[in-house]
Design brief:
heterodimer; A: 153 residues; alpha+beta; OB fold (Dihydrolipoamide Acetyltransferase, E2P); five-stranded mixed beta barrel; two-stranded antiparallel ribbon; 4 helices; B: 584 residues; alpha/beta; Immunoglobulin-like; Alkaline Phosphatase, subunit A; ten-stranded mixed β-sheet; five-stranded mixed β-sheet; 24% helix; binds zinc ion; alkaline phosphatase activity (chain B); metal-binding (chain B); Alkaline_phosphatase (chain B)
């Protein structure tokens, strides 16, 4: 946690301030509506999932979500995957299939070196849904937070 | 996500490429007579086509193998690295059994391999084969399943598992062509093709080029059954249906992670019954929950090909005795394990509340497949024994072993009514797990490790099965079996079943090292267990130990002593007479 905070402070002063002084967080950026992993889908099914009314309503707006950063695929990237539980991947028996269904892709406002806290992070940014293929990596996502920033909570 | 993970897999492939002239099939390959396979020679240097000489048993290869290989001037690896020239001849067949010595020379490079082409009995020994695979099924899993399910009094088991009464046995070596260790892909591929292969590969030899779908192919059992018989094919698993074990019945890819492609390979072979999880790879990318990168709607493609669709327990039951092909998909990912599905309602049971179990799926598959007067091949996988053993969640793994054994019971019932059926039960690899005694909450003190009983202190566990369903009424009894792993990452041992959901022993830190998951640190009595695997390992791994195979029915006498997993195929092929002369 210490490593995370100090790295964070040196890289992003603005958010770092939010970590150091959580009570001023709202002054840095309005938190927007809080969205939880439970609220992403209105319907689960073998033939597909359906986004909840809340997701549809909040699309295009500032939101915040709490979760964990999945083990980043590259040290330097502009996006990462936010998950409900800390991730654990098995090189032999598992693959992408073992990634949970309810993940959210987070596109950061600017590139930064990721750190992997074993603790909850809060992500703030603009919610977007619908299939989108990242032109750089071919990564397909259905739910995204764009222009995002994150900090430890 | 898929593409990036595939890139990791490609790195592994290159690291494993041997720096010597390589001929595929490899030396000592065993090949079913009449079965199509790809022949490939990989040279270390770039040569001219006229410099390459290939003979088979001293004759020009073209006469013996019946075709001319394509000359590839230069194969390239990752980042356009020059790998050397190659020869490739796809889909050749050898009908006459015997030893085939292949000699290759090109400049100063030479290589010689010998293949054993075998025929089979002229007449089938059995009409049906039911091949039941407990993924990761180790001796400790079955011992624990027997004790938890049946109980034990004064040192004698109070009952027997269905698998205990299969009368023919063999020890199976499960190593890969590139490692002493094994995964579900290379082992099931060897069971289903008769050729050993590399970790992560299915129905191919793993060549040196990065592409996962161009590797030299060998015929799968599903394809061989299609080519030579009118029998039906069924695939049942509790994992994603594209996962390594079910995929190996029909698939060809260097990378088991290419699940979207594996769905297409399933459609090519069209097994009459397909039941399991993994619908995410059947849905076009626009659909929430899809894991495809294209907009192919495989649900529709299967329906267009004549499949009826079932998506939950009720739809499966409604389809139990219908005619035609059946596609049953009951989860977007892996189906929930028995302990969560039937008892604790944890995992993803809330999202997919109406999933059938392995026994129900096996029942429907047998009902439908047995309508074919020519017989059938059915593969049933108890997938989660492995999936719960990796995270050292022994209670979930053992309860799934009991479910797997119940599916074996159904197969045995079927065999009683249809004695022309061969049953094979095996694992694909083991895990490093043993039972060493019990944990007794009644022992004094607060330190949980002081409650571990070994030798005479262990006594007997006090599981009960009062409703007689074969499962212990609860797993968190006061004196329970103590299973322990001989390998793993740093983790906290809690000495208790994980009632809140599957165990997550370790999580990754900022240095990309797996460290003990602190979520369990404060469980009363939990002790820190230092890992003995590299810090890049997030879970326990497969053991290299032999696997036990048991079998009963016509053809079962083929299993005895020590066998390579590729030898198992030969017994299956012989049972169906797939390599008999008249079929070529
Ligand atoms: Zn495994």
């Amino acid at each position: 946690m210490d490593i995370f905070s100090s790295l964070y402070l040196s890289r992003r002063r603005l958010i770092g301030a939010a970590v150091a002084l959580p009570f001023t967080a709202h002054a840095v950026r309005a938190a927007g509506a809080l969205l939880s992993f439970d609220e992403l889908y209105g319907k689960f099914g073998v033939l597909g999932l359906e986004f909840s009314d809340k997701v549809k309503r909040l699309a295009g707006q500032e939101i915040s979500m709490k979760g964990f950063m999945a083990p980043p695929l590259k040290a330097e990237a502009q996006f990462f995957v936010l998950t409900e539980v800390p991730m654990s991947l098995c090189p032999f028996c598992s693959s992408d299939a073992d990634w949970p269904d309810n993940i959210v892709v987070v596109y950061l406002g600017e590139k930064q070196t990721f750190v992997q806290p074993r603790q909850t992070i809060e992500v703030r940014g603009t919610l977007e849904y619908g299939s989108w293929t990242d032109p750089e990596t071919g990564f397909v996502s259905l739910l995204r937070i764009r222009q995002a920033e994150y900090f430890a909570v | 996500m898929r593409m990036l993970l595939a890139a990791f897999a490609a790195t592994t492939i290159l690291a494993g490429a041997a720096q010597a002239t390589t001929v595929y099939p490899l030396d000592r390959a065993t090949i079913l007579a009449g079965s199509p396979f790809d022949f490939k020679v990989e040279l270390n240097k770039q040569v001219k086509p006229e410099d390459v000489k290939v003979t088979v048993n001293g004759q020009d290869y073209k006469t013996v193998l019946g075709g001319e290989a394509q000359f590839i001037e230069l194969e390239k690896g990752k980042e356009d690295k020059a790998l050397g020239s190659a020869l490739l001849l796809r889909g050749l067949k050898i009908s006459a059994p015997g030893a085939y010595k292949i000699e290759v020379s090109a400049g100063d490079e030479t290589k010689s391999v010998t293949w054993d082409v075998y025929e089979t009995a002229a007449q089938p020994k059995a009409k049906n084969i039911i091949f039941l695979l407990g993924d990761g099924l180790s001796v400790a899993h079955r011992t624990a399943a027997r004790i938890m399910s049946k109980g034990m009094t004064e040192g004698k088991a109070n009952g027997r598992l269905n698998m205990d009464d299969l009368d023919h046995m063999a020890f199976i070596g499960a190593s890969a062509t590139n490692a002493v260790a094994t995964d579900s892909a290379n082992t099931m591929s060897a069971f289903m093709t008769g050729h050993k292969t590399a970790v992560n590969a299915l129905g191919v030899y793993a060549d040196r080029t990065p592409a996962a779908l161009d590797d030299p192919r060998v015929e799968t059992f599903g394809e061989a059954v299609r080519r030579t018989t009118k029998k039906s094919i069924g695939i049942v698993a509790t994992s994603e249906i594209e996962d390594a074990t079910p995929a190996a019945v029909v698939s060809h890819t260097r990378s088991r992670n290419e699940k979207a492609d594996i769905v297409g390979m399933l459609l090519e072979v069209k097994p009459e019954v397909i039941l399991g999880g993994g619908s995410a790879y059947f849905l076009g990318k626009e659909v929430a929950g899809s894991k495809r990168k294209d907009n192919q709607d495989y649900i529709k493609l299967f329906q267009d090909a004549g499949y009826k669709l079932a998506t939950d327990k009720n739809e499966l039951a409604a389809n139990a005795s219908a005619d035609g092909n059946l596609l049953g998909l009951f989860h977007t990912g892996n189906m929930d394990v028995t302990l969560d599905r039937e008892f604790l309602k944890k995992g993803t049971v809330e999202k997919f509340p109406n999933q059938p179990g392995l026994v129900e799926m096996t029942k429907v598959a047998l009902d439908r497949l047995s309508k074919n007067p020519d017989g059938f091949f059915l593969m049933v996988e108890g997938s989660s024994i492995d999936k719960m053993s990796h995270p050292l969640d022994w209670d979930r793994a053992v309860i799934d072993t009991i479910e797997f054994d119940k599916a074996i019971g159904l197969a045995r019932e079927f065999q009683k009514a249809h004695p022309d059926t061969l049953i094979v039960v095996t694992g694909d690899h083991t895990h490093g797990v043993s039972i060493i005694g019990t944990v007794d909450d009644e022992k004094p003190g607060t330190e949980m490790r002081e409650k571990v009983g070994t030798y005479a202190e262990a006594g007997f566990p006090n599981y009960k099965d009062e409703n007689g369903d074969g499962y212990p009424d609860k797993v968190d009894v006061s004196r329970r079996l103590f299973l322990s792993a001989n390998n793993g990452p740093d983790h906290y041992e809690t000495f208790r079943p994980k009632l809140d959901g599957p165990f997550v022993p370790a999580v990754q830190n900022e240095k990309k090292e797996y460290v003990a998951n602190e979520q369990y640190k404060d469980v009363p009595g939990a002790v820190f267990v230092q890992g003995n695997l590299p810090k890049s390992s997030e879970s326990g791994v497969h053991a290299v130990d032999d696997v036990v195979l048991q079998s009963a029915g016509p053809g079962a006498e083929g299993f005895h002593g020590y066998m390579e997993q590729s030898d198992v195929y030969r017994v299956l092929a012989d049972t169906f007479a797939l390599g008999a002369k008249q079929t070529n």
